[in-house]
Amino acid sequence: MAKVKFAIPKGSLEDATFSILERSWTKVYRKSRTYRVTLDDPEITVKMLRPQEIPTFVSDGLYDVGITGKDWIAETKSDVEPLLDLEYGKIKLVIAIPDSYRYKSLDEMIAAYAKQKKILRISSEYLTTASKFIKEQKSYKKYFGTKDPQIVTPWLRVGANKSVQIHLSFGATEAKPPDAVDAIMDVTETGTTLEQNQLKILDTVLVSTAHLIANKNSLRDREKREKIYDILTVMRGAVQGRKYLHIYLNVEAKNLSKLLSSLPSLKRPTVSPLSEKGWYGVNTIVLKSEFHKMIPKLRKIAQGLVVHEPRQILELEEIKRDEEN
């Protein structure tokens, strides 16, 4: 069977990615100072790359599957198949300006600068996304029509509209206003770093989380598709496992129906008679968010409560339907 090449992100998503890999496979091994990672599946080869690069590499078929942020999929305009929201690495891509400025939106800011014939400079790592968002603003269309904002990097300048410029940032974007630029488009989790640099958020451009993506041609290859769906199955199971608790408890026969009538579960609880007559063991999966609501009732009608966080919950029927479609 042809090996499936799997690209995983280095950097801000790295620790959370290794956490979900360790919940998905029984062995995850990485030699120090290398970019290669070994799983306990010899048919999968894993390499660490920058998340910015992964969508393009997967789209071009250099890798069959990858993990990257939704923000970088949008930025690179990569033609990939999104398979699963991994539900970690949540960030917002925002427009921010110095908090001394009185503008309430980027649209208002574009209009003000256009009226004053001032050049509006915006710093960002997200050149494509910034250009698209700027061109969507009503004031931009009014004053500049369909012209592309000028993108400025150390090695090239492209775009006909020099009145609105997007300057490529190589990091520490929040440090650039107001001396070098007027506004930034940058990622934030809590907004704290922006506040510490005397910046305020005007607009939210998009919300991003880590996603599992696949090359479309790889999904058409029968052997690779099978292995890709193996990867999807275990990783989806790990994502689901984080949302549930596996509980075991003992209950007297007289309280069993009362317990079962109010007990939420993934499917149906498993009920088994215990060696002591008149007692049953109940085994079920419940949402973490519901567990605290159950405690008052369980205290009164159950005994011997044991709680585990499941490593994975594999919804095999759903994966099977996906494969058939």
Write structural notes for this entry.
35% of the residues lie in helices and 32% in strands. A seven-stranded mixed beta sheet has the order 2-3-4-1-5-14-6. It has a seven-stranded mixed beta sheet with strand order 10-9-11-8-12-7-13. It has a four-stranded antiparallel beta sheet with strand order 16-17-15-18. It has three domains: 118 residues, D-Maltodextrin-Binding Protein, domain 2, CATH 3.40.190; 117 residues, Periplasmic binding protein-like II (D-Maltodextrin-Binding Protein, domain 2); 65 residues, 2-Layer Sandwich (Alpha-Beta Plaits). The protein is an alpha/beta fold and 325 residues long. It is built from twelve helices and 18 strands. The mean pLDDT is 91. The longest helix is centred in the C-terminal third of the chain and has 20 residues. Strand 3 and strand 4 form a beta hairpin. The chain is elongated and about 85 Å long.
